Structures are given as C-alpha cells and as structure tokens.
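Morning run. Coffee first, then this:
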Amino acid sequence: APMRDVVLHRNLRAGRRDPDDLATLGRLAQLPAPQRVAFVSELVRLLADADPAWRRIALRCLAGMRGQAVEEAVIAALDDPDPDVRVEAVSTLRASPHPARLAYALLHARVDVRRAALVWPTPDTAPICFALRADPEVRDAVPPGMRPPTPMLPYLHVFATEGWIPRAEVRNFALTHAIGNEAKDYPPLREPAALWAWLFDMFEGAEPHQRILLGQRVWQLVRQSPVGGLAILRDERAKRPDRALTVLFAGFDAHYFVDDAEPLEERRAILREVALQHVLLPAVSSRKPLAMRLLAGPLARHTDGPRAGALDLAAVLSILALHPESPYGVLVDAFGFDEVAEAVLAEPGVVARLYENPASGKRDRAWFIDELARRRPEAAFDARAITLLAASVADPKLRDALEVEAKREGYASVVERLLIFVRGAPVKPKRANRLAERLAEHVAEADLLTLVRAATAEALGTLDDRFLGALGRRFGDAVADVLDGAPDGAHLAARIGEATTFPFAVERTLALRWKDHAEPARSAWATPRLPKPPPPAPTGTTTLDEATREAIVTAPDLGAVLGRLRTPPLGLTAVLARRLPEPSVSACTWLLVSGDPHAEVVSQLARFEGDGSPAFEELVRAAVARFAGRTGLSLLGHAALSRWEPHAYATLDALGDEHFATRLDANRRTRSVLARRLVWSAVARAVALCRWHRRGRLAPLATDALLDLLVDTFDSDLGVPAARLFMGLFEAGVGEDGFRARHAKVKGLLPKLAENTRAVLSSYAKLEGLPPKATSDRTFADVDARLAAIRKSTDLPFLEATLADPVRQFAEEAVQRLFELGEVGEERLLHCLRSSVPHAVHVARFAALFT
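And here it is:
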C-alpha cells in the first residue's frame, strides 16, 4: 500500500497520534535519507512524545540523517528514561554520516548505553573501545582486536599487567606495530633489557612463527647496542631454549661456530642459514683468524654419506664470507685446485654461490676460471655460464663477455648450464629477452638440436621461453629440419608449442610436413596448426508458426520462447506488438536481425529495450555476435555487428551517399535509444576504417548538411559517436573548407560539452588550444566555512538564495536546513517549488516532499 505521506505530515504537525502512523513511520524509516528530509523538524519534535514507541520510531527515521539539530536531539535521547529508546538512539548514532559520533555513546555515564555501543563499534572509535577494557562494567563486552590509542606501548603494558587483555592480543600488536620505538618515552620499559624481557614474557607459549618474528625484531636492538642486545638474547636462550633464537644469536656473533659446547650438527645446519658477512662480532679486523680456524675445522667437511671427509662446498662458501680477502685465492691456498675442482663437480647446485663474487686483484674470478678451464675444463662450464649471467645486467657487458666466450670450446655446454642455473630463479622479462637474443646469435646450427633439448628438458622458465623464440627467429625453417629428423621430434615440437615467443610460421612449416605423417603423434601435433577453410556465411530466415506466435504473446518468459529460434524470423514485429512492453535482450536481438520493415523494427525496439542503458546495449551486442558474417541483414543488423569490418562497411553502404545526412538525422530522431546508438557508433567506426583503407569512399559524405548535423549532435547522448564521425572525416582530409568554417563554432561549444566528447574533439582545436572546462575557484576552506554557515543559519532569504547555488552540496544543505526550521522553512520550500526558477529543480531533486 502507498505511504500516507500527506496525512502523516499533517497529523505530526497537529500533534495527533494515529496508531496507523506508526506503521507509516516504519516504512518511512526504510527510505533513503533524502526522502525523509521533509519530516525532520517533526521527527525531532516527536522525540519529546510521552509514548516511548513514538520516540523509538522517530529515532529510527532519523538514522543516517545529518544536521546539527538532528545530532543534538539523538545525543539527548541517550538519556531517555526508557531503555529501549536509549538502545535505538545508539543505533541511530552508529548510522550517522559522521561515524565518530558514536563516541558520545561509548563514553556515556549509563552502563547500558556503553554496552549497546560496543555491540558494533565503528572503525573510528576503536581506540575508545580498547580503552574501555579498563572499565569493569563493560570490559567483557569490548570486541577483540580493537586498536589501542597511540602511543600503544603504555596501554598494552598496563592492560596486560592488569590482566585486562590477553597475551595473544599483545603479541598481534607487537608484531604489526613498531611499539619498541615508543619505549624511550615510557619510563617502565625505557631500558632495552626491561622492554625485551617483557616482550619475551608476552610471547611465552606463542606459535613458533610468532617467536621467530619477534626474534627478528631484536635485530634493531642488537645493532644499536651489540653487547646489551646479545646479553638479552643469551639470557633468553638460557631460560627458554629456542632454535630460532639460536639462529638469530649466531647471525650476530660468529664465535658461536667455534664453541665446542654447542652441538656440531646444529652448528653445521645453522651455518647454512646465516649470512656471516653481516655478523657484528668479531670485528672486521679479527675475522680472518676465525675464518681460517673454521676452514681447518670439521665444519668445512662432510661427516657422513658417500662424500664423508670431502670438502663441503656450501659450508666453505658460508665461512669465506668472513674472510676479507679474495675467496678464490683463499680457497686454493687452503685446499688446492684438485680438491676444489672435485667439490665444484660434485656440488653443481652450490657452485653458483661461488661465482657470485667477482673479487679483485690478481686472483679474482677471471683468474680462477682460466686456471680451472686449463686444469679441469669440465669443471669450468658452470663458471663460464655464471660469468655470462652476471654480465647480462647490461647489453654492452654481455656483448663483450660473449665475444670472449664464443672463441672457447664447449659454448653449447656453457649455454646448457646457464639455462639450468636460471630455471629456478626469477628473471625479469627484459633481462631474459636480452640474454636469449645474445646467446642465440652465437649458436652454431650443429648445436641446435642439443640446445632445443636443453631448453625443453623441464617446465619452461622465462629464459627457456625467450631462448626458444630467439632460436626460431634466427634459424627459421632450420629448426623445422632438425625436429623433422630427430627421433624425439614430436615430443620436442610439443614442448616448443608451449613457448609464447616461438614463431608460429616455423610451427606452420613443420605442420605442413607432418599433416599426413605415419607417426600418429606428429600428425596429431600438426592438425591444430594447419589453416582451416573459412566457414560459409550463414543465410536463411524462418516463418513463425501459429503456436510460436501465440507463445511469444502470452508466455511469462519471453526469453525462453525466443531462445528456441535458430534463424531470424519474419513477422516478429507484428507478434511482439501484441505483447506488453518489457526489457528483453532476446527480443532486441531477434528484432535487429529480422527481415521486418525498418520502421516496425524501430518501433518494437523502443518497447523492449527498457532504458537502453550501455550495459543493456553490451548484452545485446554480445547476443547478436553469433550472426557475424551473415549476409542480407538490415541496416540495424549490420550496425549491431559493426565490430566486424564487413558489417561496419555494410552499415555505411546501407545509408547511401546521396541522402546520407538526411537518413542519419532521421535515425537520430527515432524513439529507440538502441537504434540511435548502434547506427551512429557503427557509422563512426566505418569512417575510421575508411580513413585508412577506403579514403575515396569518404569524400561524398563530407557535406555541409552532415557537418552541421554532427555539430548540432555534440551536446546530446550521441555526442561521442558524433565527435568520432566528425574527427574521422577531419583526419581523412576530406571537406577541409567545411571543417575550417566550423572551427570557431565548435570551439565555442567545447566548454559545455561532456568530458568524453571534448576528449575526442581535442585535436581539432589544437591550433588555438582547447578551451578549459569551467572550474570553481573555491578552496576546501571556503567550502567548509560555507557549509557551516548554511547549517546554522536562520536567515530565510539567504537559504532561499542558496537553493539556486550551482554547487549541488550547498543547495542540498539549504534544503535540509529549511526543513529543520519547521513550518516557516517548509513554506519557503513550497514557494520555491511553485516558482519557475532553478530553486525548484534543487528542491525536487533532493527532497520530494511526498512520495
């Protein structure tokens, strides 16, 4: 049933309390806030009613409304003698456009008001909710996870000490906020030892990953005070043994690794986890003796397995980070070339770490690689590959390195090793492209099969993908020759097909060779890569039988009936004319491709397109797409399919040259929004295509009549397609005199056109510049001051004048303020509604008095 707005308003004004008005107010409360503004003064007055039921419903109607009078009345209702009214007042505050107003309820003297506010607090009031943990009357009602006020540390420390918050909550804030930085201004935890003793106590019983994260926070403390920080870590390890803390401690003090009191296997495992170059102790000047001691000790060798007693290359590399000299010279001096070469060959997964450091001096990386290549060539492939990888950061460096590398023996083996190294590491596409192109430049055709197998040995990485593409571009059909002759050619071709950069032309060449191959795998690979003959263009129409006609007229689900059609129907417009109008994508789709007269199709489109919104248009375009390629369609059918070039050209041809402007203007005036937009968009696209391929087709179109039509259409719902059509002709260089003659007129129109239309026309005005869109010179401070003045004003002429302000926000505030002033304000609003000035537009738009 419709709301009794007028009766309700009169009753509230007269002080009458009709029981039916309670239900009416309930429906009023469900309307958007702007539709309730007309009742604001009466609703505020209703909060003083003797019956709590009327006070509750008044508060519900005020929810979400702004204004000083509203807020003061709702806050006063928090002290209402009825508890249900107080709870309703809290809900109204929570729905306020200013969520922070809920603080009035959270800090209220009444316990039930505070508890009601805590049921669903707003994000802005989270710090207040947290502080209420100190309130014994509402502590149990505070939701978990509320953010403390800042600085957080004093609140967390006191509340945890008093038992007002659980340790888990302290841990969450300690891991997500830099509360350690607040300790210097908080005397109880100002000393680092006190702070971290308290934090470690809070993390007692925490999840392992949380203790690890806490330990990582100690890094900052230890960096600032190594002695004090390490003492804290040492004491904590003694009280609560924890491997994560041990790893952290070892990362600060390398003396841990020569401490025989620590288990050897644990030291060996932790040595692989820490970066000794970052340790704080010992000092740099004292690290060399410690490094040599570790290299001579048991940590540098395997203790079990088939390589027991042999060099442990991973451990040695970790230890070398302590030594200040070139790692290559230290390595050779400590163990000799033969033992180092054996370790390099035995641990290929570790060797990349060895070559990360170029070192300096006579015994640098280049010296080591040359010596290794001379003594044990097979052990140098990895080193050469890593050298190329390091040089790939810049193209000149990579070119120079490849000039040297290409002269050495075993280039293909080096590339194989490089592909293996990179496969497990992320490589940026730009670097992968550079490396792949340069590597392929030096590949010999004899190594092509070997390298294709290497690149496809595992799942394709970024470099594998780019390298296969580079080989395909450089060698072309030679790759097809290699795959054709390889026994595993079908497998290799399938893997190459996964590469996104491999030339399809090479795949097509190989597919043509294998289309009738005796090996099933090769012929199966070729089939999807062979060219397919184009399908014949669909044709034909259907005549609706009597049962289908009747179903179209009477069926509740029109889409289901039309969904059973397979070809465009004849006579659909006459059948749809017997049905009540409704938005229907199916109906519009079949109308566009039907063979019925144009005028009838347009008439029925207007009945079944709804509001013709862009979203609806996209749905229709998607549905019509299955008819792409069909010949014999009407103007509208081709227009709906204009995303395909043949249909765009067909739209242009259907309009003809002689009466082009007249027919386009006629289309502009049709009732159907869909028909207008489809045709104008299709013509704009066709002209854009003709600009490149059929420029001569455009010369007859650029008439004065058409140009005038387009200029007149800029400021309409067809402004964008009109602008695109205009610019297509302009940029094609046809009708130059006509465009020159209209330049001043278009320039004058630009400031009031829509932004997207202006953007299309911008290059047309480039000779003299695009006139700026009118902008406001108000600042944010001006806006705030003006709003404050409107909200407090009792000056009726001032508020009435503000109703015509071009800034909509000011006009809306003036409407609400006049309603708040009660009867005198409403009389002004009614006077404005009767006038013919812009005041009425703002009143009607923002707050219709009665629905």
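DSSP finds 52 helices and two strands in the chain. Good start to the day.
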